[in-house]
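Q: My labmate handed me this sequence with no annotations at all. I'd like to see what the chain might look like in three dimensions before we decide whether it's worth expressing. Could you predict it?
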Amino acid sequence: MKNAHEYFFDNFEWLFRIVAVFLIIDIILTLIAMWKYARKDQLIWFVVLGITNTLGIIPFIYLYVNRKMG
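A: Here is what I predict for the chain of 70 residues:
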């Protein structure tokens, strides 16, 4: 008999693969955007994008602003 850990990973392996693909796409797009900002001497956008993506500030702001909706 499988334990809960084995059951979860056996049945949701496809979900982990999809999340991994989206994560890789997000990282690539972020790096491309940051590269373009750096090449155009738009230092402020480079820093803002780097900080907001690294610290998860945009999702935090969304959750904070919409905290009363749920």
